[in-house]
Design a protein that fits this description.
Elements: H1 2-10, E1 16-20, H2 28-45, E2 48-52, H3 56-59, E3 66-70, E4 73-78, H4 80-85, H5 87-93
Parallel strand pairs: 1-2
Antiparallel strand pairs: 3-4
Length: 98
C-alpha cells in the first residue's frame, strides 16, 4: 500500500515530496525496500524527498543529510555518520553519550 501511495504521488511529477514516517508499521525488510525505491526514484527522476522518520537505524543509511530534533529543536545536522555520533543525539535518543 505504501508503494502504491508513492506511485499516486509521483503521477503529479513533483519536484519535492514530504513523507511523514513512511516506515511506520513496516517490517525491516520492506522498510529497506521502500528506502531503496525512494533512492532509485531520486536518481532516475530527480525528485527530492524530505523524510520525517524515527527509525534512524533503517533510514540513515539511505539519507544524504540528516537533521536530528529533540523537544522541537534541531540538536544536530549533517551527514548521517556525523549526526549519529553526535553526543547530543546519543543522549537524546539513547540516554547516554557513551
Amino acid at each position: 500500500m505504501k508503494l502504491l501511495e508513492l506511485g499516486r504521488i509521483l503521477m503529479s511529477e513533483p519536484r519535492v515530496v514530504l513523507l511523514d514516517e513512511p516506515l511506520a508499521g513496516v517490517n525491516p525488510a520492506l522498510a529497506r525496500e521502500i528506502m531503496k525505491r525512494l533512492r532509485e526514484i531520486r536518481d532516475e527522476l530527480g525528485v527530492t524527498f524530505l523524510i520525517v522518520e524515527h527509525r534512524l537505524d533503517l533510514a540513515s543509511s539511505y539519507a544524504d543529510y540528516v537533521y536530528a530534533m529533540h523537544r522541537g529543536s534541531v540538536i544536530s545536522r549533517g551527514t548521517p555518520d556525523v549526526v549519529l555520533k553526535d553526543p547530543l543525539v546519543l543522549e537524546a535518543y539513547i540516554g547516554s553519550s557513551r
